[in-house]
Write a structure and sequence with these properties.
By secondary structure, this protein is an alpha+beta fold. The chain has three helices and eleven strands, in the order αβββββββββαββα.
Length: 173
Amino acid sequence: MKYFFRIFVAAAVLAACFSAAPVVADDAKPKNEVVEQGWTSHCDKPATKDAPKYCEVANALVMKDSHMQVATFAVGFPDKNSKTARGAVVLPLGILVQQDVIMNVDDSKTPFTFRVQYCTPGGCFSYINLSPAVIEDMKKGSKAHFSFAAVGPQKIDIAFSLSGFGKTMKGIQ
């Protein structure tokens, strides 16, 4: 019963976050508006002077009023010699983890598919390898779409703007 209640609450939160029509108050202000924070970069301070510095770029979708995280997409390189980038994707709870998540840059003919690895109260996490070709598509593209199935069944599509991605990536490459 406790498990069912958690799934029900997660599905309700997901439905509220992604409802097709925004909830409008009497003063016509959306209550559940999702806003994008934009691409930023940050670097971890190495534990020792000989340890490599790890940097990544990230963008997040959050609820405007509550600042609750809806989704996050981060990209970095495991080491300075790596040509393949490593991505971390955090999606909302309530998704069907048995099905693939599809990432598509704009209307690319070659979508990138992956699976969710695990979920915590903070969201559902995936770690993906992004080839140089995918990174180049992202630098040239306008949106990265993530499509997935939710409990319900409902198909969800969220999009991160790629405006500023290429410029921010130059700072860490």
